[in-house]
Amino acid sequence: MDIKVTTLAGKDAGKLKISDEIFGLDPREDILHRVVRWQLAKKQQGTHKTKGRSEISRTGAKMYRQKGTGRARHSSARVPQFRGGGRAHGPVVRDHSHDLPKKVRALGLKHALSAKAKDSSLIIIDDLALADGKTKSLVDSFAKLGLSNALLIGGAEVDAGFKRAAQNIANIDVLPVQGINVYDILRRGTLVLSKAAVEALEERFK
């Protein structure tokens, strides 16, 4: 599959042949859903916690005598029925993550890349570099390219000036190619890859 390559200034920079095995698949929503769910579950902190009845600091003495009061039989003020008592079946600190086979994760990334290519939401730029590191000049470049909500993937290392300039622009994310993931690809409207990122991805899935 041949795809057009542009510069940051919006000028034509030739064409690049990309692999159909990575960018030409028919996207499957079930695989994308599994990978996104795995990613989000792994991100959950799981630090939510409430105190159970055994953790409440209250006297252990019986509240009142067993018989003769006409009231229900109670032995502890720590139970959930009473104000200040423990929480019944409350959340506990736990790990929300679950396993997902490596092959499914790799396939999910291929399907996410293919989904962007199929929707014509994939742009290849020859080099993600900005000499002056100014946000204003980068905003002008994005306007020429029609980018308002995008994920930009550079090579092994993202140009420091480009990264600094992009930090102040809303709805724009910049990642090195090692950080590319399904969730970030799908949450942004357009995927922008540098030529170095395409080469790294094709080498990764070879």
UniProtKB/TrEMBL annotation:
The gene is rplD. Residues 43-97 are annotated as: Disordered. Part of the 50S ribosomal subunit. GO terms for biological process: translation. Signal peptide: none annotated. One of its GO terms (molecular function) is structural constituent of ribosome. PANTHER family: 50S RIBOSOMAL PROTEIN L4, LARGE RIBOSOMAL SUBUNIT PROTEIN UL4M. Residues 64-76 have a biased composition (Basic residues). This is Large ribosomal subunit protein uL4. It comes from Nitratireductor aquibiodomus RA22.
